[in-house]
Amino acid sequence: MANLVSCHSTKVSDNEGNNLTESLETDAILVCAGGLLSTGLPNAWVQARLELSAKLYSAKPQPILCLGGGTYHKPPILNTFNFVIHESTSCATSLMKMGLPAKDILKEWGSYDTIGNAWFGFVNYVIPFGWKNIVVVTSDFHMPRVQKLFNWVKSLFNLDCVITFVSSPDNMDDEILELRSAREKASCNNIDILATRIATPKDFAKWLYTEHNAYAVSEVVSQDTTMKNETLQKSY
How far apart are CA 82 and CA 44, in angstroms? Predict the structure, then answer.
């Protein structure tokens, strides 16, 4: 099994944005998706990720990659023209409202969960652009799974890439935090199991596109039977 927490990866916790920005010399900032409000704006915890990413950018201008097309846990949010609002588009718009230039913002809209964030982030951006030193930003509650997934995908390609993980405040009420944290713990256990049998890009791609509910083809789209709590579902 691959070492999911690589010695070339570092987690930095920052809930105020202090001092952190002075020490990171990276090629790009990757911001994980995390859900939209019914208005199409990022959730409060995603907004915190974006604000922290903007601080990192202000210390060292570099590409910011917004990850995520949406979620398969609930219907997509539509704009006034009934087109889907991709999470990465909403995040990119938020960054531009903070004053960041469009030329330094990228978006990825093929992923519909965190494992897709990691896979499509590497396949479509990190590898083609040759980024050797990246920072991945997500909420504190989400960080353990993000570390496992990004390190796992990196190991599949045997990449010489340094990843620094930076966590932002959770910015959610206690009920949602408890529900989300429980799901994160279960998902981390599932990753460990999957990693024992998937060790190459080919094996990973085969699994993703033939077994994963968000990406596989089936006659009937299967629903996540664990998503029975309405409060939990709305948080995606």
Answer: 24
